[in-house]
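Lab notes, practical 5.
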Amino acid sequence: MCVIRRITEGITWENCPKRNKGENAVKRKLSCVLILILVLGVIGVAQAAELPFKIGVVTGTVSQGEEEYQAALKMVARYPGSIEHVTYPDNFMQEQETVIGQILQFAMDPQIKAIVVTQAVPGTTAAFNTIREMRDDIVLIMGLPHEDPDMIADVVDLAMETDQIRRGANIAELAQRMGAKKILHYSFPRHMSMELLAVRYNKMKEEAEKLGLEVVDVTAPDPMGDAGIPGTQQFILEDIPRQAEIHGKDIAFFGTNCAMMEPAISASMAAGIIFPEQCCPSPFHGYPGALGIEISEDR
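Output from the prediction step:
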């Protein structure tokens, strides 16, 4: 597996040269081409063109991953006829068979030479394992994988994720620099069972202890639960003011779920507490909706 970690200094590459399953040079070159396409698409310098192959792209909907969804639409427009895009269900934990079927459908098309799934929700690894048995000429890429690194390592060609291990300490440091005396950590059992998120949390607590900060754990409703995304968002809107009354305004919010971000930014501003950064750090994540910022079409 090739891992790209986005950190504050830029992009680092780790363990990238070869897999252990004997891919030939052509496949590795194709991987490099795909990486360049993705990077060029992100920074906006690629021009509209038709590729000599097709790429299947799977993202979430705007309910939790609008940035990924909009990026996919831009790629479809930039490479007309070469990018096929589908969205997995919002309730992906209960509809994993649908997720698997959507990914496998791409592999049925011999013109598709790569599949990109971001966020790579549960079911992605199972689908990739099946594709490996079907085809050896297809590049499989995950963005923000939800499943543990050891589980995905043998099946994926490229996995991209923020450096969650370093982020744990960095978030605690940022909260302290912004004046926080406590960190409110909002999550739920499903997320805390994910290896990278659990490690990030432990690193945050370790650094917070060194800095003299207290980490307060708050269990929020899982957006995949009965109340769905609206239930999680309503809880965030109601709970942040409660926590501000209990702990004062020198507290910093951090949540592990994308659906939390927009209401958390709004509620944090209203309550006057600190908001260091989102679960997925990006200027487009949560801020436009919470602050009423219009994003131009070319962004």
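Observations recorded by the TA: Residues 1-22, 42-46 have pLDDT under 50 and may be disordered. Residues 60 and 137 are 26 Å apart (CA to CA).
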